[in-house]
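Thread: zinc ion complex, take 2
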Amino acid sequence: MPHTAPRIALAAFMLESNGHAAPAPKAEFEATCWLEGEALAADLAKPNPRAPSGLSGFIAGMAGGAWEPRYLLAASAGASGPVEQAVFDEIVTRIEAGLRAAMPVDGVYLCLHGAATATAEFDPDGVLLARVRAIVGPDIPIIGTLDLHANVSEAMVREADVLISYRTNPHVDMVERGTDAANTMRAMLGGMRPKAAFVKLPLIPPATSQNTDRGPYADIIAYGQSLIDHEILDVSVVSGFSVGDTPKNGMSVIVTARRDQARAEELAKGIAARLWAMRERFSIRLTPLDDATAMALAAGRNPSVQALLFADVADNPGGGGRGNTPFILRAFHAAGVEGAVFGIHNDAPLAAAAHAAGKGATIRARFNSAETQAFSESFEADAIVEALSDGEVVGRRGIYKGRSVSLGPTALLRIGGILVVVVSLRKQCAEPAMLEHLGIHLRAVRSLVVKSRGHFRAGFDDIFPREAIIEVDVPGLTAVVLTRVPYRNVPRPIWPLDLDMSWTVPGSHG
Ligand SMILES: [Zn+2]
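Output below.
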């Protein structure tokens, strides 16, 4: 019997793979989201789902008309190293099996990050899209959303009909882009057959140069949006994941037209040329640790001056960092900084020791006792266990707003004039509830130290304006000084590793 309401398959695969972090086992996905079939449907019906926000946005966008969702698998992990090949193979196999069982479908929506690697595969996102395409055939729409940190490949663009990336960093438009995907799906179900153009640039902008409130990336995204008209459906200027290490590193421009391939090509080339010409604006400047320590000391001594937020941008779990390097903590503690809160430090054995000792106990806090990553050096100090929790929070601002987040067993430790939030599951400190649920009053904090590259900005901007943010220069797996990143696989020459290189947009004159 023919079905009238369109049947759309939904799946998610989200991983951002740091080229120099340890491989991600299945547990990394299970700690964030591994939901299949009915379990995925049930999660997405909740007010605070675990599944990626793009799926919620897509479902909201489809809700205006009759449709039949077919829930496959949502596998999402915090940024890590490459996914273990067997785990990626299982993800693909499960999505394929779910899709075959759902056939015939009228469309597929894939919520992707776009910067995954697997231990034996540089382009799992491209592989997944190709395997889905092989099942549905050339005529069924496949629409994907991408994180703007995606390292986009030719295969990804070829196998999908439309790829739509976020436009905000911090990413506060994940739901909206999912809704864009739904609107595009409806148009394709009505007969539209869009054409995409893709230009890859030999340009890796450092992670801290990619904010979208202002600066070069804000300007180029705004320019791209100014080109949207009756013919141009989407302009995605994808900054890429700077500490991935793949042949597909680098910025990408994807322009999707409703029908006119030539116009899409022309605009994509124009944006790429403009980006290349402005590349010097993506240079960065960090604050040395000694200067940051002096600033924290001063802020602690004078409660009448603006409180400061120190970003440990090189140990960002959101980019595959371990979330536990001790460099800033060690320096602030040695200097006697007062009124500082460190949120959040990933150390399950230390959190367990605090839980075993109990609230009010004094313990010898041994940081990183079970850690193997070289940057995660040990640090010891006497600490008082101030508070304990199970680490289950619901986000209230920024990228985690409305989402359920698990930190695992969590402890608040006092070390001299410093409070340290110790968690058991590696997460980026981008959400006030991660600290507030332990009784921390953020407005009373003099120095807040977060292990985050930039998503913290959307979580804490009511208390810490742009001028109060200090990006500290310490070592780590998510270094933003790219000459320090031990790349092996990125294509050369590439900016800023090869500063005096020249480049012209392929197929253009000049
Ligand atoms: Zn991102």
